[in-house]
Amino acid sequence: MEVIMAKYGEIALKGLNRSSFEDLLVRNIKRRLAPLGDFDVSRRQSTVFIKPLSENVDLDIAVNKLCKVFGIAAVQRSAVLPKKMDEIIKLGIPYLKNTLENAGTFKVEAKRSDKSFPLTSPQIQQELGGALSDAYPHLITDVHNPDITVLLEIRDKGAYLNAEKIPAAGGMPVGSNGNALLLLSGGIDSPVAAFMMAKRGLRVDAIHFQSPPYTSERALMKVESLCEKLTDYCGDIRFYCVPFTEIQEALRDNCSGDYFTVIMRRLMLKIANRFCAAKHYGALITGESVGQVASQTLAAIGCTDEAAGYPVLRPLVGMDKKEIVEIARKIETFETSILPYEDCCTVFTPKHPKTKPILEDVIKEEKNFDFAPLIEKAVSNTRIKDFKLGGKN
Ligand code: ATP
Ligand code: MG
């Protein structure tokens, strides 16, 4: 029989709260695997054990999915063997065939949490190492930097043998650190920002501002497909789509073009504030990075923040575009993000926005028009759509 063992990452540090973190991780794992079949998911000794309950479960797919569950540092697919050294050797040699045939050097590491097992860890290492060397004579033992580490764990319920520790997403279980609302555009950055904050244990929902007919239906579909992709890491995402056209037109017609961008961003935040208050999000998240564009100078960020009623988390703030793109590729949002559809941010944008806006001037300019009724209208006409984890499986 085979099981998957998921090793905790940072949860292990959580002291008193530990067991609620672990329960949350187990729940997240169950939900993630539910579309694949029946599993028994239980935790013992800093490890979550995932045991398939039906024959036809594809463990490769399960491993793949588990590698995207935040809170898991590494995943191991293991054989569960009887706790007898000769049985372990007899069954272990063929079990490790594929891996060991393709390796040059190896070592055996033994961990014995069941102290009633008659051999000590060094003895286990010696016996199993010797038997594997005999069975695969091309293998060279290298205790310092081996290609493959064969791990044998003698635990209460059996001996677990594996040869590969697959690094997983790390971070903390989604939902362990509260809820936040992501300002999601169709660009490269904001999906990466969602990934990074979900990694820190936030449950993330998304708000998107749309300006039809200046922005097309396809632009919206692109953002929705980003949401769907993000569920792989973030779990369920509630998506708020705010009609922003009237506000942008009013802004164009009533305020100086120099301030268009900064006021527009303030208005986005004022609308986002409303959803935070109503739905209890503890923070906003954006994909901004200092200096990337005119609205992301320190002065502009300061003027924008003044309109936010909640902390604005900017996980990309110190990252280069190249680093952001690397993550976007890894989480598979990049190809969608670069589809060439317009965003409302590029509608009516002046050629030379102020890079050093002064807050008093911005507020004065903003007062040229009473946006409150339009904000009210936009909030009440917002469409909600839920993207469910695993919805596309
Ligand atoms: P991105 O790649 O995320 O679009 P960007 O580099 O294009 O970012 P901006 O267009 O200035 O930068 O947007 C900065 C941030 O503002 C975005 O990361 C996103 O969080 C938010 N944002 C921009 N446009 C929208 C929109 N239409 N709806 C919701 N949020 C938006
Ligand atoms: Mg953008």
Q: What structural class do the secondary elements suggest?
A: alpha/beta
Strand content: 15-25%
Q: In whole angstroms, how far apart are the ends?
A: 26 Å
Which series of helices and strands comes N to C?
Answer: EHEEHEHHEHEEEEEHEHEHHEHEHHHHE
DSSP summary: helix tally: 14
Ligand names: adenosine-5'-triphosphate, magnesium ion
Overall geometry: elongated
Largest sheet: 9 strands, mixed
Q: Could you explain how this protein is built, in words?
A:
The chain is α/β, with parallel strands linked by helices and 393 residues long. It has 14 helices and 15 strands. The strands form two sheets. Strands 1, 2, 3, 4, 5, 6, 7, 8 and 9 form a nine-stranded mixed β-sheet that branches. A six-stranded mixed β-sheet has the order 14-13-10-11-12-15, sandwiched between helices. Helix 3 (85-95) crosses helix 5 (121-135) and helix 9 (260-279) crosses helix 10. The mean pLDDT is 93. Magnesium ion binds at residues 185, 187, 343, 345.
Key traits:
alpha/beta, binds magnesium ion, about 400 residues, about 20% strand, six-stranded mixed β-sheet, 14 helices, elongated
Give a nutshell description of this structure.
With 393 residues, the protein is of the alpha/beta class.
Topology:
Blueprint: E1 2-8, H1 18-33, E2 39-44, E3 47-52, H2 59-66, E4 72-81, H3 85-95, H4 97-101, E5 105-112, H5 121-135, E6 140-141, E7 148-155, E8 158-162, E9 166-167, E10 179-183, H6 189-199, E11 203-210, H7 217-234, E12 237-243, H8 245-254, H9 260-279, E13 283-285, H10 298-305, E14 312-313, H11 321-330, H12 334-337, H13 359-366, H14 372-380, E15 383-387
Helix pairs in contact: 3-5, 6-7, 8-9, 9-10, 9-14
The protein binds adenosine-5'-triphosphate and magnesium ion.
